[in-house]
């Protein structure tokens, strides 16, 4: 059973999400919070596996709340919720450690599946949506962020950098293995080492870094 916390300032949204999620026998909404200011406390009290975090809330937005939750020992996975698919808050929440994001109009079946993917330890890196978000807000070649990203990428081996590019394109380990002619276990090992070297917590942050470093331009 995957335990869920919903953080959203709209009661109707929370009720709708709970109804959709609990239609699946493997998902349970253990708590709800109406503002990001309550998120960390609720996480400590209820120990959810996944937090659905709204971005725009009156007292404490989802970005700040994501940072607070990520600072806790053994934090849950966080999926940010937004009405807008190109929202700077979402991008910064991903940088802060969120495992992915969902639009609030995501079809129920896709919502349930996405939560299961995140609960299983995989980041929601959709080539169709997340890459577009990352690409939209990626730094231009002259910014400090681009230079800093290139410095971090320099720590990687050539093979790790090749794997990083494929992660940035939204490929899962099995597909990366096929593209680079290596076993899935080897790909997983490269990804794990890259996460450590880049001080990243998940594949979404790695993909953001690939964009910022210019590895996926064009």
From TrEMBL:
This is Response regulator transcription factor. Gene3D superfamilies: 3.40.50.2300. GO terms for molecular function: DNA binding. GO terms for biological process: phosphorelay signal transduction system; regulation of DNA-templated transcription. Pfam families: GerE, Response_reg. Residues 3-119 form the Response regulatory domain. Residues 149-214 form the HTH luxR-type domain.
């Amino acid at each position: 059973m995957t335990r869920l916390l919903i953080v959203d300032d709209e009661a109707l949204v929370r009720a709708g999400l709970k109804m959709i999620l609990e239609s699946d026998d493997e998902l349970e909404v253990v708590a709800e919070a109406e503002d990001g200011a309550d998120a960390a406390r609720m996480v400590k009290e209820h120990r959810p596996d996944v937090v659905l975090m709204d971005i725009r809330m009156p007292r404490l937005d989802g970005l700040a709340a994501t940072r607070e939750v990520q600072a806790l020992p053994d934090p849950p996975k966080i999926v940010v919720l937004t009405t807008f698919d190109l929202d700077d808050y979402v991008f910064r929440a991903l940088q802060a450690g969120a495992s992915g994001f969902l639009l609030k109009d995501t079809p129920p079946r896709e919502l349930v599946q996405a939560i299961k993917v995140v609960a299983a330890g995989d980041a929601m890196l959709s080539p169709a949506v997340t890459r577009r978000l990352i690409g939209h807000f990626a730094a231009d070649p002259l910014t400090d962020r681009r230079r800093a990203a290139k410095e971090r990428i320099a720590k990687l081996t050539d093979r790790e950098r090749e794997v990083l590019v494929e992660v940035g394109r939204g490929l899962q380990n099995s597909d990366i293995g096929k593209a680079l002619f290596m076993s899935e276990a080897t790909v997983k090992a490269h990804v794990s080492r890259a996460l450590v070297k880049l001080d990243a917590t998940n594949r979404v942050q790695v993909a953001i870094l690939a964009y910022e470093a210019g590895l996926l331009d064009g």
